[in-house]
Design brief:
Helix content is 62%, strand content 3%. It contains five helices and two strands, in the order ααββααα. The chain has a two-stranded antiparallel sheet with strand order 1-2. Helix 4 packs antiparallel against helix 5.
Length: 140
């Protein structure tokens, strides 16, 4: 059985910055560039008041940006969400393309990690034996 809860109190820009890890400047930028899915409400004095839905969207934006999604793609994604139902296939295509880029980055990093681990092993073995053999020595 679903229960209805009272809506959470609106949050200030500082509170949202703290919850999302975005700076106040970044939050204003996201709003100005149309990367939010709804308009940010304002008090009579003009102060921004965010909802929990705004915070949830921003947390998704943070992860998409941390994973390398270009701002243009994030803005396009927000536009699609704002337009509502009917464009889900385009949203999926955008997210799928991003997921493929992230998967390629992960694979490249795994290859880098493997080479680094191999080299760490060589150095550890040689240092344990007190030898420099097998290590690159520009003077030797």
């Amino acid at each position: 059985m679903a229960t209805t809860e009272a809506p959470a109190e609106p949050l200030s820009i500082g509170e949202v910055a703290e919850r999302t890890g975005l700076s106040v400047h970044a939050l204003r930028f996201y709003e100005r560039e149309g990367m939010l899915v709804g308009p940010v409400q304002r008090t009579a004095g003009g102060r921004r008041r965010y909802t929990t839905v705004d915070v949830e969207w921003l947390l998704i934006c943070v992860k998409l940006r941390e994973s390398g999604m270009p701002l243009a793609d994030l803005k396009h994604f927000a536009e699609l969400v704002r337009h509502g139902p009917g464009n889900e296939a385009e949203r999926l295509q955008l997210l799928d393309a991003h997921q493929q880029r992230v998967e390629a980055q992960i694979q490249a990093l795994e290859e880098c990690r493997s080479i680094i681990a191999w080299k760490v092993g060589i150095y550890a073995e040689n240092l344990a034996r007190g030898e420099a053999g097998g290590l690159w020595d520009p003077t030797g």
